[in-house]
From TrEMBL:
<protein>
    <submittedName>
        <fullName>Putative DNA-binding transcriptional regulator YafY</fullName>
    </submittedName>
</protein>
<dbReference type="InterPro" id="IPR026881">
    <property type="entry name" value="WYL_dom"/>
</dbReference>
<keyword id="KW-0805">Transcription regulation</keyword>
<keyword id="KW-0238">DNA-binding</keyword>
<dbReference type="Pfam" id="PF08279">
    <property type="entry name" value="HTH_11"/>
</dbReference>
<keyword id="KW-0804">Transcription</keyword>
<dbReference type="Pfam" id="PF13280">
    <property type="entry name" value="WYL"/>
</dbReference>
<dbReference type="InterPro" id="IPR036390">
    <property type="entry name" value="WH_DNA-bd_sf"/>
</dbReference>
<dbReference type="GO" id="GO:0003700">
    <property type="term" value="F:DNA-binding transcription factor activity"/>
</dbReference>
<dbReference type="InterPro" id="IPR036388">
    <property type="entry name" value="WH-like_DNA-bd_sf"/>
</dbReference>
<dbReference type="InterPro" id="IPR013196">
    <property type="entry name" value="HTH_11"/>
</dbReference>
<dbReference type="InterPro" id="IPR001034">
    <property type="entry name" value="DeoR_HTH"/>
</dbReference>
<dbReference type="GO" id="GO:0003677">
    <property type="term" value="F:DNA binding"/>
</dbReference>
<feature type="domain" description="HTH deoR-type">
    <location>
        <begin position="2"/>
        <end position="57"/>
    </location>
</feature>
<dbReference type="InterPro" id="IPR051534">
    <property type="entry name" value="CBASS_pafABC_assoc_protein"/>
</dbReference>
Length: 319
């Protein structure tokens, strides 16, 4: 919806400071032309969006501009007060802070909006925990809180870590941030001038130090994580197919058949994507299942495999 997209644009500009139409289009999965139209709408609404052309240009908002938090609507209340498993917040040691903040916000709501809160909490529960059995849950929580403190205070830590080759190594880490992915915690930081992501559960020992570090001003945790995750997924799903997405729900359906979207772009109304699969065989089966939703353009070899599979299927019915 355009209203949601306009709000997202404002929030992105407030966070990033300056963004180009191309960057916003990629984040919001629309065309650059749509972004320019949205900027005209925002200006017409009185939002002081500023545009600068040329190298290093883009869209900005004045540093003093702030959006209002009052006038919340029922869907916004529902989104804020979704019932969530507090385990990740407990692991970080900030669950009491979260409850305090929500109570303060709840106290400022009208009676009608409080009823909205009760309504959504009794209908949706988001469990962010992992299916995996946590055999050393308490130990991991302790390590996680030490790392969280190091992130907050920008203090270096010494780690004993077991890597993906099952080799135990020691390293010093300047911790930039924490990421929770599918119930698994990762710490992102710099070690020997290389930024890396480490699984907290693989940390065997942690020793905080009094050495402080300067976090690079240009570092953005979300951007780094997206790049790291894409690189990881490309290793896990090395067979890449280029395809046109013919239907709106194609993206959601692809994951059901073992595919991972690496990149989605739109030009002249045509949506194209790079889709990763574990193997060519998986790609062939998924493409057949997604017939009518995607149209494969490359590699050429998969087209031949698909035609062969269709011919075999037709032959089986003719007998």
């Amino acid at each position: 919806m355009r209203a949601d997209r306009l709000i997202s644009i404002i929030m992105r500009l407030q966070q990033a400071g300056r963004m180009t139409a191309k960057e916003l289009a990629e984040l919001l999965e629309v065309s650059e032309r749509t972004i320019y139209r949205d900027m005209d709408v925002l200006s017409g609404m009185g939002v002081p969006v500023q545009s600068e052309g040329g190298l290093g240009g883009g869209f900005t908002l004045p540093a003093t501009y702030r959006t209002k938090v009052d006038g919340l609507h029922t869907p916004e209340i529902h989104a804020l007060f979704l019932q969530m498993n507090e385990q990740p917040f407990k692991q970080l040691g900030i669950d009491h802070v979260l409850r305090s903040a929500l109570l303060k916000l709840l106290g400022s709501l009208s009676n009608q909006h409080r009823e909205d809160v009760d309504w959504i909490r009794n209908r949706v529960f988001i469990d962010m925990g992992s299916w995996r059995k946590q055999t050393k849950h308490g130990q991991e929580d302790g390590k996680l809180q030490l790392i969280r403190q190091a992130v907050w205070e920008q203090r270096r830590v010494h780690l004993t870590y077991t890597n993906r080759l099952n080799t135990t190594v020691t390293l010093s880490l300047d911790s930039y941030g924490l990421v929770l992915k599918a119930g698994i915690w990762f710490v992102v930081g710099s070690s020997e001038d290389i930024i890396r992501a480490l699984r907290v559960s693989n940390i065997q020992a942690i020793e905080p130090t009094n050495i402080t570090f300067e976090r690079p001003e240009s570092f953005r945790l979300e951007s780094y994580w997206e790049q790291w995750l894409t690189a990881y997924q490309r290793r896990q799903f090395p067979y890449v197919v280029e395809a046109e997405l013919l239907e709106e729900d194609a993206s959601a359906r692809i994951s059901r058949y073992g595919g991972v979207l690496f990149r989605v772009s739109e030009e002249a109304g045509v949506r194209r994507a790079e889709i990763g699969f574990e193997s060519e065989e998986t790609a062939v089966r998924a493409t057949l299942a997604l017939a009518g939703l995607i149209q494969v353009r490359a590699p050429l070899a998969i087209g031949a495999r698909i035609r062969e599979a269709i011919e075999q299927l037709q032959a089986s019915y003719n007998h």
